[in-house]
TrEMBL record:
UniProt GO MF annotations: alanine-glyoxylate transaminase activity; L-serine-pyruvate transaminase activity
Protein name listed in UniProt: Aspartate aminotransferase
Keywords: Aminotransferase, Pyridoxal phosphate, Transferase
GO biological process, any: glycine biosynthetic process, by transamination of glyoxylate
Length: 381
């Protein structure tokens, strides 16, 4: 495999545009000076636009899971109850985080079968009382986009803090933090924003500030981030990954140049093209949708067709210079997933579909070449 020409079509990290890579090569600057402060403020302002919020915004040197832990640990103490909604691997991760800090009441749906969230079950859990509730807006492990607005309405009805993982939607799909009543939302740098991995961002509402625990963790103490950001020269409380901030700034400038609405439409179109290709190749989608859920606009999860196994499928695609993902946990060997997020092109989508079709044809899973590429191409016109 040529690592200089390997197309990442996984649910993150995503390909990083050359101008973002060049930005990372800038000389290191002091993180307490005006130049860094101006960059930090610019990034936070743009992120507020992507989140659809006027809430406070901070950037943490740490991945999306770090921001998830910050969201939970700053609001949940040992006597507090957290409701976690689980219909994917990352909903499960919220539970695992929550169990380290307080009491957890999990509302589980069988994500190994691609089940969607049933709102009645969520409401029943909230009716028993809880300080906060978590939701993964778009769980890439199963390729489902979950009903954030509806969960936000329920959280408001029962007075719970609403914590939302927007790691794989913010910057690539519609996210309306304020309108949906999200108190804390998080995103990772290496997904729809199109920057390298290593940074995350978190928005915090007034309601969330008022519910903070007395003894938060040290490094991800959100009050410390607030205090530092509010200084005359904005800064982070601890040493940030300066080169990654350069990359984040450039990636966010690219988002603004494209326009958020156009970027969201592009992501949706790419996912639609992948679904059309799958249908044309008789490859079955994995998620089991209901009236509240939707197929993801940033990752397409499909069942591995009869006649080929996971290893042959993904290794065959990889030999053609493209990397796609398999299933996680109990779904290993049962599904494969194609990411369609960040700064990718129509050609990237068509190349990936063609690679899948080539491998399926080589293994006699599809009888002829072409229908998948044609179906995707028709969507991308």
């Amino acid at each position: 495999m040529n690592l200089e020409n390997n197309l990442l079509m996984i649910p993150g990290p995503v390909p990083v545009a050359p101008r973002i890579l060049r930005a990372m090569s800038r000389p290191i600057i002091g993180h307490r000076g005006k130049e860094f402060g101006d960059m930090y403020s610019e990034c936070r302002t743009t992120l507020q636009e992507l989140f659809g919020t006027k809430n406070d915004m901070y950037i943490i040197t740490g991945s999306g899971s770090c921001a998830m832990e910050a969201a939970v640990s700053n609001n949940i103490g040992e006597k507090d109850t957290l409701i976690t909604i689980e219909n994917g691997k990352f909903g499960e991760r919220f539970r695992e985080i929550g169990e380290r800090f307080g009491k957890v009441r999990a509302v589980k749906f069988d994500w190994t079968k691609g089940e969607s969230i049933e709102l009645d079950s969520v409401e029943s859990a909230l009716a028993e009382g809880a300080k906060a509730i978590t939701l993964v807006h778009n769980d890439t492990s199963v390729g489902i986009k979950n009903p954030a607005k509806e969960i936000g309405d329920l959280a408001k009805k029962y007075g719970a803090i609403f914590i939302m993982d927007g790691v794989t939607t913010i910057g690539g799909d519609e996210v309306l933090v304020d309108k949906w009543g999200v108190d804390i939302a998080v995103v990772g740098s290496q997904k729809c924003i199109g920057a390298p991995p290593g940074l995350s961002a978190i928005s915090v509402s007034k309601k969330a500030w008022e519910s903070m625990v007395d003894k938060p963790p040290y490094y991800i103490d959100l009050k410390a981030y607030k205090k530092s950001a509010n200084k005359e020269t904005a800064q982070t409380p601890y040493t940030p990954a300066v080169s990654l901030f350069f990359a984040m700034q450039e990636a966010l400038r690219i988002v603004k140049e494209e326009g958020l609405e156009a970027r969201i439409m592009r992501h949706a179109k790419f996912a639609e093209a992948l679904r059309a290709a799958a249908d044309a190749m008789n490859v079955e989608m994995f998620p089991q949708l209901n009236k509240y859920s939707k197929y993801s606009n940033t990752v397409t999860a499909m069942k591995i067709p009869t006649g080929i196994d996971d290893k042959k499928l993904r290794n065959g695609i990889k030999e053609l210079g493209i990397q796609v993902s398999g299933g996680q946990g109990a779904l290993e060997g049962k599904i494969f997933r194609i990411g369609s997020m960040g700064n990718i092109s129509k050609l990237d989508i068509l190349s990936t579909v063609q690679a899948v079709e080539i491998v399926l044809h080589k293994n006699d899973v599809v009888k002829k070449m072409g229908p998948g590429v044609e179906a995707a191409s028709n969507v991308l016109k």
